[in-house]
Protein: Class I SAM-dependent methyltransferase
Amino acid sequence: MTLLRDERLAAAFDHAAHRYDALVAANPGYHAQLRRSARRLGLPRGGEGLSVLDLGCGTGASTAALTAVLPGARITAVDASAGMLERAAAKPWPPGVTFTRAPVERLAQAGVRGPYDGVFAAYLLRNVTDPDTVLTTVRGLLAPGGRLGVHEYTLGGRRVDRAVWTLVCRGIVQPAATALGDGELYRHLWRSVVEFDTADRFADRLRTAGFDRVRALPLPGWQTGIAHTFTGRRPLPEQDPAR
Structure:
């Protein structure tokens, strides 16, 4: 199969939206790992007085992680899937959390313009057609010194990493999703990871996009070597080679 992109991917997520939370709940540590990555974003004071953009919020799991770690932040959560966003917005949220429907490639048209003190993107970058352009856009949305956190399936590069990922997808995730009518989306999930960057390559991609202080941090548990947190910063003006 070819990878799902743009409108086809959004439609697949629309179809899966009402079952999505149940499927991810079966993933050991899913929500704890998102909170770990949100902490690694490194924003101070529990986010008090800060503005954070949650890109690709889905049904709100990443938004919940951000509100747990940064209870004082104003959080703008964005997703391209109307079905996923409807599920997210229907949940109880503290004041300061808002939801906007927009593809990540058309944020400005939806009124998402920044500047933000932090941008968090979970399970997003491997799903976009042009990750380099998206990263350039994200850099432009950050205030100087603003922080980027990416929580993503990026294989470590060892054969065992790909083997474990394939075993989990083909042996557990895909059969369950197929039985629920969402097999195409979860076949995309497997392939989107094996065809995307390794962790080292993605860290280099962040540096090329103009972020500094880039780190690639493994996540524990069964996802070790499969999922990572990446952090980076938009350089301060006097440190920015793009100026």
